[in-house]
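Dear H.,

Thanks for agreeing to be a second pair of eyes. The structure we're designing against is below in token form, covering all 245 positions.
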């Protein structure tokens, strides 16, 4: 495996330092993914509140500006996801995928999809981290790849945050006067944001689940050990899903 540190002479502790840098970059990409999800949810919920006068208090709470809290959220998530190992992240992803499947099956009993979006934030970060660990394993110049991914994820998160700030500040005015292209677009198709998030999360967790199974199976020396691990785990989670239904 080649990384940014492979160009430098082997010094004591240097390899550990580059591994820490890779972990932080991977955690930053995952935290930016969570930030994008939160910003788009904020946009959707604010639009729904504008169209419902009874939710005026909720609208004001969503529009309240907390710039330091948002930055702190990203920093804390970056640190936590950098410290969480790929195998722990894999277990978190698989556990949430089963809970999500159970929630979708029981949606007719009063479970709302918006609750699932709120609950999946940490699991989404683990899923992105798990997927990056699997996809970039053995990749040439892994550190450069992660730097590029972190830059793109940061730009996407920044634009999503600016969109949320614009909507919370000017959407109500612009949607009435109809002279802002962004607000007119949201007025016409803002109801499709949950579908967009649902499709993006489905793809992300599908890749993360495959990566998680592969990462966990590497710990087993034989097929028998893997079967002894997965069989009781599958039975327990199946019974849990059945019980929740």
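And this is the sequence the design step returned. I haven't edited it by hand at all.
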């Amino acid at each position: 495996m080649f990384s940014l540190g492979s160009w430098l002479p082997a010094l004591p502790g240097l390899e550990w330092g580059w591994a820490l840098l890779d972990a932080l970059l991977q955690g930053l990409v995952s935290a930016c993914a969570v930030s994008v999800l939160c910003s788009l949810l904020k946009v959707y919920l604010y639009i729904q509140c504008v169209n419902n006068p009874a939710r005026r208090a909720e609208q004001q709470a969503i529009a309240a500006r907390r710039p330091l809290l948002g930055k702190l959220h990203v920093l804390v998530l970056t640190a936590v996801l950098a410290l969480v190992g790929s195998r722990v992240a894999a277990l978190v992803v698989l556990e949430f995928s089963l809970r999500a499947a159970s929630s979708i099956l029981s949606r007719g009993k009063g479970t709302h999809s918006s609750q699932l979006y709120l609950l999946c934030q940490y699991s989404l970060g683990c899923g992105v981290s798990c997927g990056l660990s699997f996809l970039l394993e053995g990749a040439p110049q892994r550190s450069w790849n992660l730097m590029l991914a972190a830059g793109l994820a940061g730009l996407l998160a920044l634009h999503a945050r600016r969109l949320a700030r614009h909507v919370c500040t000017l959407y109500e005015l612009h949607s009435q006067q109809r002279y802002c292209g962004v607000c007119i677009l949201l007025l016409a198709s803002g109801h499709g944001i949950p579908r967009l998030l649902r499709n993006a999360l489905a793809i992300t967790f599908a890749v993360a689940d495959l990566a998680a199974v592969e990462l966990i199976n590497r710990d087993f020396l034989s097929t028998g050990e893997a079967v002894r691990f997965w069989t009781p785990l599958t039975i327990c989670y199946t019974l849990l899903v059945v019980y929740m239904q």
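Two observations from my side: Residues 19-244 form one domain. Confidence is low (pLDDT under 50) at residues 1-12.

Warmly,
E.
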